[in-house]
Specification:
The chain is an alpha/beta fold and 320 residues long. Helix 1 runs antiparallel to helix 10 and helix 3 packs antiparallel against helix 6. Helix content is 35%, strand content 12%.
Amino acid sequence: MDTQAAHYAGRLWLQTDAAFGVREVPLVLPKPAAPVPNKNIARKEQIAAPAARGAPRPAAYVPRTPKMDDRLPREVPSPGAARTGSPTANRQGVDIPRPVKLPPIPDGHLEALAPINDADKPRLLAELQQETATALEPYISDIATQVVFGSGNPAAKLMFIGEGPGVEEDKTGVPFVGRSGQLLDKMIVAMGLSRQTVYIGNVVKLRAADPDPDSGRLRDRPPTPAEVALNIPWLHKQIEIIRPQVIVTLGAPALKYLTGTAEGISRLRGTWMTYRGVPLMPTYHPSFLLRAYTPENRAKVWGDLQQVMTKLGLKPTTQK
């Protein structure tokens, strides 16, 4: 690796937002663009209490049995089948009891699995995407309007994994397209790569948000364990198909749910870990950098990315 060029590219990224094609990066996360209709809040109250027999269900509720029930842990009953008196979390349009037991991380190294040709990976991912959309269809609501599966190169050597889609991702069906996505794009370009050469996914495929009690606007939040239990099997299958050489987790939830660690992201970022034999580098989520866009934090992330570049044998781009 050209160390001088790496330092030069790193300095450019740390010193100016425009160095890699993004003219401006906000210092705070944007507020949701539009207020949530009152029916959202009413719907949440209706779902929280069992409906009387024969009473009409809320309009946004999808009364279908999910096709994924046989894949869920035994501790997670079918949506709408919560036992009387058990606490529930009204997430993603259905009642999901809690606490829950997360599905275990699959055993064995990815290298021990049967080989997959790169030419077959687009088809396999497309089939998995359709399977995921069918299984999660009962959880579509006016909060999570579509499944955000993932995007990028099916044969990518590098995979970025965040926690879940936000409002912009829910609108487009593509992960990391909002302001956090702009910053992630800049980070990827700084490594000499592009969105088309890596793969980007999330722990959960549906937007997680709650109405703000004061404004009524939807506010994105980290996924609950119940939501992770429902969604993460599809991420494990994605990784099995892509089989990246390196994984970068963005933020605490992705690190926690892919490694099982209880340590915080501040303690573990920059330290190599593994997922089923694949080197895994934890680093800060772009949304955290937007909230704390300091030279110190950017230097930490750039140092993490440089370690990834070294692991992949990449040379940094040079800017003049």
